């Protein structure tokens, strides 16, 4: 109630979002700050199903907001990287 009284337009806008759009938005904002993560970590952190995370990552990758399946020198596994952080290609390459 307090948030709605303070920011009624923003709350109304949030209620109009589909779950899929909301998940993609949360993942984009988190990844922008964290720079890199994995789909598994995102699912655990936000309590989402892996298929929801995969769909959101695919949507964000198509929009070129994130790069998926990246290698990071010295780190095992494949990573999801926000494109704003990928401006310096050292250490991250796409397979």
Radius of gyration: 15 Å
Integer average pLDDT: 90
DSSP, total strands: 4
User: Which strand-content bin applies to the residues?
Assistant: 15-25%
Biggest pleated sheet:
4 strands, antiparallel
Number of helices: 5
CATH superfamily: Winged helix-like DNA-binding domain superfamily/Winged helix DNA-binding domain
The number of domains? 1
Tell me what the CATH architecture is: Orthogonal Bundle
- CATH topology (fold) name: Arc Repressor Mutant, subunit A
One letter per element, helices H and strands E, the order comes to: HHHEHHEEE
CATH class: Mainly Alpha
Oligomeric composition of the shown chains? single chain
- Strand line-up in the sheet with most strands: 1-3-2-4
Please state the structural category.
alpha+beta
Explain this structure to me?
This protein is of the alpha+beta class. The chain has one domain: Winged helix-like DNA-binding domain superfamily/Winged helix DNA-binding domain (Arc Repressor Mutant, subunit A, Orthogonal Bundle). 54% of the residues lie in helices and 21% in strands. It is built from 5 helices and 4 strands, in the order H-H-H-E-H-H-E-E-E. The protein has helices at 2-6, 8-16, 19-34, 39-46, 50-62, and strands at residues 36-37, 66-72, 75-82, 92-94. The protein is elongated.
């Amino acid at each position: 109630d307090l948030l709605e009284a303070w920011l009624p337009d923003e709350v109304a806008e949030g209620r109009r979002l589909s779950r899929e759009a909301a998940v993609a938005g949360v993942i984009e904002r988190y990844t922008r700050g964290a720079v890199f993560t994995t789909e598994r970590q995102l699912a655990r952190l936000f309590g989402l199903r892996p298929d929801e995370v995969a769909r959101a990552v695919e949507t964000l990758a198509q929009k070129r907001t994130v790069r998926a399946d990246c290698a990071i020198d010295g780190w095992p596994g494949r990573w999801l990287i926000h494109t704003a952080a990928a401006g310096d290609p050292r250490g991250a390459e796409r397979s």
